[in-house]
Amino acid sequence: MTAYLSGREAFGEFAAAAMHSFGGTMLTAEELAEFGEEYIAFLSHWHRDPGQAAPGSRHVSVVFHAFPTPDSGDAS
Q1: Can you give the three-state secondary structure of 38-49, one letter per residue?
Q2: Distance CA 15, CA 4 (A)
Q3: Which of 3, 17, 27, 43 could cross-link 31 (Cys pair, CB 3.0–4.6 Å)?
Q4: What's the pLDDT score for residue 21?
């Protein structure tokens, strides 16, 4: 990500299409597990092996983190 961000102009239309997102929500442990399963299903929908990729495609890195936010009431 650092290499991309420090030279994103070299990525042309891919730089214009790239996105970053940060957010949060309130979930139970069960909902968090379901959220993760839905994320994996979504990513699997878009997965392409190199031999299946359309001309002009390039590898895109996707990073996902979903974890409980520590707060002052949590044990250390």
Answers
A1: HHHHHHHHHCCC
A2: 9
A3: 27
A4: 86
Given CA atoms 75, 24, 58, 6 in this order, what sign does their dihedral have?
negative
Q: Taking the model in full, what pTM does it have?
A: 0.74
Place of tokens 């214009």: 16
Q: Which residue has the higher pLDDT, 75 or 43?
A: 43
Q: Report the 3 state secondary structure along the chain.
A: CHHHHHCHHHHCHHHHHCCCCCCCCCCCHHHHHHHHHHHHHHHHHHCCCHHHCCCCCCCCCCCCCCCCCCCCCCCC
